[in-house]
Structure formats: structure tokens, C-alpha cells
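G.,

No rush on this.
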Amino acid sequence: MNSATSIPFDYSAKPCKRMPVCSALLATCLIVTVLVGCQSTREQMMAEGFPAPFIDGFEAGCGSGRQAAGALDRFRKDVPRYLQQPEYAQGWDDGFRQCKEGLDSAIELELRDNDKRDRDWREHVDQAMAKAMRGL
């Protein structure tokens, strides 16, 4: 008997529908943690010489970008400051774009992986059904 056919398969199992979002958020958090290490984003940016208004804008924009991509974050934008301080505005725009695109791509990658797992599962079920029907 072939070892591939001797592995039991639970045909009643269904792919989880909430896993893509949860996994994407977890992957994003893991990536951010690995890239930043123990330093906060603010500390890292200060060490790299970014001005405080830029950092304030980046943090607000990043949270807003994650929220726009579907994360449980809140939209934050100090509009008067955004209009009066170019460094804050640039930081906000950069933070929004980077964090939104980062989370969007992590979610897209996770969804693509889940689509492949779903197709593989369906193909396996179809093949098992065809084999069972031939045996009748």
C-alpha cells in the first residue's frame, strides 16, 4: 500500500474563514517586532535623526493606515498641525502609506496562501471521492 493513501483524512474538516485576517495581523505584528526589535518606532526614528514633528505624524499616520487596511486601530490626524507643519504632514503621509500597504500586502499574501490550501483541500476531497466511486 502506498504511504500517501494510508494517511487518514478528516473529510468533515472545513477551512477556517477567520484565519486569514488573524494570521495576517499576527504576521504583521511579528514582522514589525523582528524589524524593530526591542526599540519602539519612536525610539528608533529618534536614533536615526528624524525630527519630533515627523515622528508624531508618522505614528498617527501609521495607526490611521492600519485602520484603513482593516486593523483594529483608530484614525488619528491632527488637522491643524497637518496643515501648519510640513514635517508632521510628511510623517503622517509616510506613516499612513507604509503601514497601510504593509498590512494590505500581509493580508493579501495570507489570503493567497489560504486560497491555495482551499484548492488543495478540494482537490484532495475530489480525488478521494473519485477513488471511492471507482471502488463501488
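When you get to it, here's the other one too:
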Amino acid sequence: MSGTAGGRRAVDDAGSATVLAAAAVGVLVCLLGLGLQVGAATLARHRAESAADLAALAGAREAVRGADVACERSREIAAGNGARLVDCAVEGWTVRVITAARCACLPSVSGEATGRARAGPVALGGPPSGPSVVTRGDREVNGPGRAEGGPG
């Protein structure tokens, strides 16, 4: 009696490779989905950081016109880069912003990525925000309404 063990017929394992292949394909699809979610989250983080960088630079450019103007310009630039402005602070001529970008992940894994940036002049030998010094012709202005006389 060939193919028997102890008088009983051997278990037929035909088709077990199909089950294993189907399981392997399922695992690969899950790994692909996970990889796509990680990629989408990374893309959202990069978008938020880029929007924060550009918004801070644009806000710093407008800081001489006031905090409201600087933060409004930062908001416009962040929106133009696919993010929203969460926070904006103007300290002297330095603008700090926080932006958030939506992740294009699955609805069950939704969230926002944030980016932070600071831009402004660097005072030599002082803190990064430095004193608010603007030159106007022959006078130097040290903050609002405090002018020192120049030569002449």
C-alpha cells in the first residue's frame, strides 16, 4: 500500500501553496498601504515646513509695516502653499510662525502636520531678533518715535 501510513490514507496537501501565496499577497498589500501612509504624512510635514519658512520670510519683509500686516501676509503665503497659519508672533523685526498642513492619509488616520519657522535680521553680537533699528537718511530710529540726531 503505497501512500498510506498505518493503513490510513495520507492527507492531501494540494492547494496549500495557493493559500500561502494569498496570505503573502495580503501581507504585501498591507505593507504597501503602510508605506503610502508614511509617505503621505512625510509629504504633509514637508509642505507644512516649507509653508512656514516662506510665510516667516514674507512676514519678516512686512514687519516694518506692523505686526498685523506681517501676520496677514504670512497667512496669505501659508495658504498659497497648501497650509494654514496657526500662530504668528512679531518680536521686533523677527516673525515667528506655526503652520499646519492636512495629511492626505486615510480618513481613519487623518491629522495635521505642523511646521515652525522664524525669520528676521540678525544683529551682530546680539540676540537674533535684535533691537528695532531703522535708518532714515541721516537719523537712526531706535524703536517707535525715538530718533537720535545724525550729522548735520
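Strands lie at 4-5, 8-9, 84-91, 94-102, 112-119, 133-136, 139-142, 147-148. The first strand starts at residue 4 and ends at 5.

Enjoy the weekend,
O.
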